[in-house]
Amino acid sequence: MEKRPKRKLTRTQWVVALSFLCAWLFMVVLLVNPAGKAEEPSYAGQPLTHWVWASRLPGPQGDRARRLVRRAIPLLVGWLRLNDRGYVEPAYIRFCNNLLQKQHLIRFRFEPHPRANRTAMAYDLLSQLGPGREQAIRRLIPLLGDEDEDVGEMACSLLQGMVPESVPALVQALSTGNERERARAATGLGDIGRNPQSVVPALQQALKGKSLRVRFEAACALVPFGRQREEFIPLLIEGIKGGDHHMLQEGFRFLIQLCDSNRLSSELTKLLATATDVTLRRAATMTLKSLQAGDSAGAGAAGLPGPDSPEVAQARLAYRAELDVFRREFGGSRDLPDVPFFLFGMGHRTKMVYRAGRLLDARSGLVLREWNVRSQAILPSEYRVILETVEGKTVTLFEDACGVWEVQGRGWLRLAGTSNPVNLPDFARHRYARILRVLHQELLFNVTEAGPVPNLFVYPRPWYRDGAMVALALRETGNLPLLRDWLLGLSEPYDRNNAGETEADNLGQALFLVSLAWDKSHPLVSRVLAEAPRLEVAGPNGKYLQGRSDFAEHPAYQTKWFKYGLAALRLPDKYTVPSVPDSYAALFWMGYRGNYAGGHDADDRVAYPYLGWACDHFHAVKKSPISNRDYPLTWEQNASQAHYEGMNLIAPVYARQRLATPHTWHAAEVFLYLLNAAQQP
């Protein structure tokens, strides 16, 4: 029997088939796509942020704002309870776009419809409430008892920020709530730092209850007030033996403060005689050995071991193993100079550099502390430096959400100018949690009172382009309040940082940045909109922007940013991304992928690695590197506007090689790539 030849589809038939496929996919998306953007609530034509700030004003205007804010409090508390993890692009949209990406006849792509993180927005707005917060306090108190630990901690933090108005409600919760509510109320009352006579009786009464956790938290809360310190020791030991990891850590910390060496040695010996938990025995054994060796700093070793301890070696090994896996999965590494150092001062804190036994002011170079060091260990993912001096003392420098600390012996000193809070998630559910923590730190170190700079040592001012990427990252971790003053103070359409040029992508970045702190009534918005027509070009598919960015024309990239800024402020958009070759088009991966014309991408992975990471994010590939060092992980080299002499404070080799490290755009691109990749199934 003669075989019939296979019939090939013509181009027209392919177009018809793909058109039917796209129509079917479009109907699926319409049916399955969740409701659009969860936007900030508006009242009387203004977003809630406007009224929160206006509620601080005196007179009738402030009274009206306070009434409107009170109407929104139930909604905000509900959003807080959601513990929203943020927008995740639906799998069916990625599937559809991946199919469409494999052909070139149909340019249509499904655009994501991200919504704001409702929990982060609620936390931000509730933390800014001015006078008249009683309704918010009443609704936050029940959240102290929420089974979700994150929700309970957020409620506790917000109530602490509402002192003294929240004190009566916390005192009542201490006696009437469930176990979690009473324990968190005790924690909140212990951190108020003022007017102890209003809370001490309630905390003392809580010591008489049955719940170990409540009694333990009440005892820890009373320690700073200097009440019955000796009587707390048995309770702290009971918490160490019978509680969770948190109680073990806190119990050792307070036990070290309350006991002299003889009493501490006696209590530790008793613990070792009966304890079976491995972590507890290790901590008690290390502390006891340090005491027997006569090291007064050793009492702190339970939580903060020495540089040559097994715990530090294990932590360093785990971090390096994670780095090795990461480099194999992605684009390997790039050599940076072998100069061990670490940076302290995240957010609006004093900026400091530790290197070779000295702690320096990062701006002036002034020596703040100096030690004669025998050995040292730097644990970047724990924001910690551990030193052993030639005298045998252990000194630990570390940074947490509350400040930068120096620990020697049983003395904990928060360094001057470091008390401003920052939000430091541990990313515990992420495969690369340690790397994310380091990238987050590299971002936050470069946040200054004047705004986020690309690198503190070589750039004196913020750049809109880099700042927008930093803002995208910090929005994910609840740290946008650190940028608020800079965002509200933006006044120029262009940053003019690149040899004074008016770079066209700045217009969209300026709109987006303003949207993070205010609305379209911000004065800069009208200036940007008035500037846009000067850059408009009429294309075959509609208008787009075209100007210079990095000394070349990048119309697709510039128009994408402008559309993104318009959408962020909910402004009319008459522009279309041009389907023209643009080496910067793939740098914008947040949306508007449909008109990508291909061609050569500006994916430099050596001098400007953020370009490579952005292109990788756009194309969903893994080709770009991080550094070969434990710290820092990011850099930039040979930038035309950088003042590399500033890197002499770290080491002259950086200035000679024209290397700036760490770098916020690079850190933000890696950080956001990892977060977005983790959200994909």
In short:
The protein is an alpha+beta fold and 681 residues long. The chain has 25 helices and 21 strands. The chain starts with 10 loop residues before the first helix and ends with a helix.
Question: What does this 3D model show about the protein?
Answer:
This protein is of the alpha+beta class. Among the domains are: 13-123, no CATH class; 312-414, no CATH class; 446-626 and 635-659, no CATH class. It is 45% helix and 11% strand. The strands form eight sheets. The chain has a five-stranded antiparallel beta sheet, covered by helices on one side. It has a four-stranded antiparallel beta sheet with strand order 4-5-6-7, with no helix packed on it. A hairpin with a 5-residue loop joins strand 6 (358-361) and strand 7 (367-370). Helix 3 (59-82) packs antiparallel against helix 5, helix 3 (59-82) runs parallel beside helix 6 and helix 18 (464-476) packs parallel to helix 25. Residues 29-38 and 293-303 have low confidence and may be disordered.
Unreliable runs, pLDDT <50, ≥5 residues? 29-38, 293-303
- Average pLDDT works out at 83
What is the helix tally?
A: 25
Cα gyration radius (Å): 28 Å
**Dominant shape:** globular
Structural classification: alpha+beta
Side-by-side strand order of the widest sheet: 8-9-10-11-12
Beta content comes to: 5-15%
Estimated helix fraction: 40-55%
Main sheet? 5 strands, antiparallel
Distance between the termini: 49 Å
How many beta-strand elements? 21
Fold blueprint:
Elements: H1 11-32, E1 42-43, E2 46-47, H2 48-54, H3 59-82, H4 91-101, H5 118-127, H6 134-140, H7 149-161, H8 167-176, H9 179-190, H10 200-206, H11 212-222, H12 233-242, H13 245-258, H14 261-274, H15 278-292, H16 310-329, E3 333-334, E4 342-344, E5 352-355, E6 358-361, E7 367-370, E8 373-379, E9 384-389, E10 394-400, E11 403-408, E12 411-414, H17 433-445, E13 447-448, E14 451-452, H18 464-476, H19 484-489, H20 505-515, H21 523-531, E15 536-539, E16 542-545, E17 548-549, E18 552-553, H22 555-568, H23 609-619, E19 626-627, E20 636-637, H24 652-656, E21 659-660, H25 664-678
Parallel strand pairs: 3-19
Antiparallel strand pairs: 1-2, 4-5, 5-6, 6-7, 8-9, 9-10, 10-11, 11-12, 13-14, 15-16, 17-18, 20-21
Helix pairs in contact: 2-3, 3-5, 3-6, 7-9, 8-9, 9-11, 10-11, 11-12, 12-13, 14-15, 17-25, 18-20, 18-25, 20-21, 20-22, 23-25
